[in-house]
Automatic annotation (TrEMBL):
GO terms for cellular component: cytosol. Pfam families: OTCace_N (PF02729). Residues 6-141 form the Aspartate/ornithine carbamoyltransferase carbamoyl-P binding domain. SUPFAM superfamilies: Aspartate/ornithine carbamoyltransferase (SSF53671). Keywords: Transferase. It comes from the Bacteria. It comes from Acetivibrio straminisolvens JCM 21531. This is Aspartate carbamoyltransferase. InterPro entries: Asp/Orn_carbamoyltranf_P-bd (IPR006132), Asp/Orn_carbamoylTrfase (IPR006130), Asp/Orn_carbamoylTrfase_sf (IPR036901). The keyword Transferase applies. The lineage of its organism: Bacteria, Bacillati, Bacillota, Clostridia, Eubacteriales. GO terms for biological process: amino acid metabolic process. PANTHER family: ASPARTATE CARBAMOYLTRANSFERASE, ORNITHINE CARBAMOYLTRANSFERASE, MITOCHONDRIAL. The keyword Disulfide bond does not apply.
Length: 156
């Protein structure tokens, strides 16, 4: 099983089975992270770009480390030092990254809906790392994992 969509934009878009699949995968990855050899071949040959329009040390670093642990090539775009500072739009930035062959773009943006806009305009998979007051699905998964430590089943 996997995800039906190429993108992870929010939990509302996922089925119960997809959420369970992600949580089970996260449990497996936690075991790997607890071992001496944190490197896995899961994303070998894939390129991942973190595109953060907002500052976020923990979230950005978490994605970068996870990418490297799973053997992906990872790069971070500092928006303040990019063409965005000269007025480049989100769609233009996304298309440029897409043309460079990125497999995954992880975006954090203060504007609600920005990851959805990006996903509609690129072929790369888009992961929402937080979009304003809308959603932060990866943080919600962390909360679910914490709850699963206390309970065996999550419902609702």
């Amino acid at each position: 099983m996997g995800l039906k969509s190429k993108d992870l934009l929010g939990l509302r878009d996922l089925t119960t089975e997809e959420i369970q699949y992600i949580l089970n995968t996260a449990k497996t990855m936690k075991v790997i992270l607890s071992s001496k050899n944190k490197k896995t071949p899961h994303l070998q040959g894939k390129s991942i770009i973190t595109l953060f329009y907002e500052n976020s040390t923990r979230t950005r670093l978490s994605f970068e480390l996870a990418s490297k642990y799973m053997s992906a090539s990872a790069a971070n775009i500092s928006v303040a030092a990019s063409s965005v500072a000269k007025g480049e739009t989100l769609i233009d930035t996304g298309k440029t990254i897409d043309m460079m062959g990125a497999d995954v773009i992880i975006i954090r943006h203060s504007m609600s809906g920005a990851p959805h806009l990006l996903a509609r305009n690129v072929t790369a998979s888009v992961i929402n790392a937080g979009d304003g007051m809308n959603e932060h699905p990866t943080r919600r998964f962390l909360i679910c994992l914490q709850l699963l430590r206390k309970k065996e089943v999550l419902r609702g």
